[in-house]
Amino acid sequence: MTSCSINTIFTNCGLTDDGDVWWEGMTEESPDHLIDWKGNDWTPDTETPSAQPNARFTASALSTLRLNPAWEAFNEVRISAFIFGGKRMNDVPLMYQDFNWTHGVSLGATMFSELTAAA
Predict the structure, then answer these.
(1) Is the pTM of this model over 0.85?
(2) β-strands 2-5, 21-22: how paired?
(3) 27 burial class (0-12, 13-18, 19+ CB within 10 angstroms)?
(4) Minimal CB count within 10 Å: which of 2, 64, 103, 119?
(5) Distance of alpha carbon 103 from alpha carbon 100, whole angstroms
(6) How are strands ordered across the β-sheet holding 14-16?
(7) 3-class secondary structure, 21
C-alpha cells in the first residue's frame, strides 16, 4: 500500500480509514481497522502485521526548512555531504570521508547495506 501526504510518499504501511498511515509501534494502541500493506482489510485480531517490516518514506527536498533558495541553480550551492540511510552491515564503517568529488560519488554509488526483505 502506497500513500501520499503533502511532499511525502509512504510505502508498505497500513492505511487508516481516514487516509493516514500507520505501522506497528507507531502508537500504543492499534486502530480498529486498516488496509494492510498488501491491500487487505486488517484488524488487531489479524495474525499478520499491517505494515511490511521494511516500510519506507520519502520526503521532498522542498519540505526542508533550511533549504538554500538557490538549491537548483547550477554551481551555486556547495554540496558538503551525502547522507544515506539504511541497515548498515557490521563490517562497514559508520562514516566515510572522501578525498575529492569523484571519490565521493564512487563511495555513494557503491555503499554497502544489509540485504533486507525489501530488496
Answers:
(1) no
(2) unpaired
(3) exposed
(4) 119
(5) 5
(6) 21-22, 14-16, 34-35, 41-42
(7) strand
Tell me which amino acid residue 85 is. G
pLDDT per residue rounded down to tens, the chain (119 residues): 544 446 778 888 899 999 888 988 889 999 999 999 999 999 999 999 999 887 777 777 777 777 777 777 777 667 676 666 555 566 666 667 788 888 888 877 776 655 655 55
Class of domain 1-59 (CATH, top level): mainly beta
Query: What is the distance between the alpha carbons of residues 113 and 19, in angstroms, rounded to a whole number?
Result: 32
Q: For the chain, which residues make up each domain, given as ranges?
A: 1-59
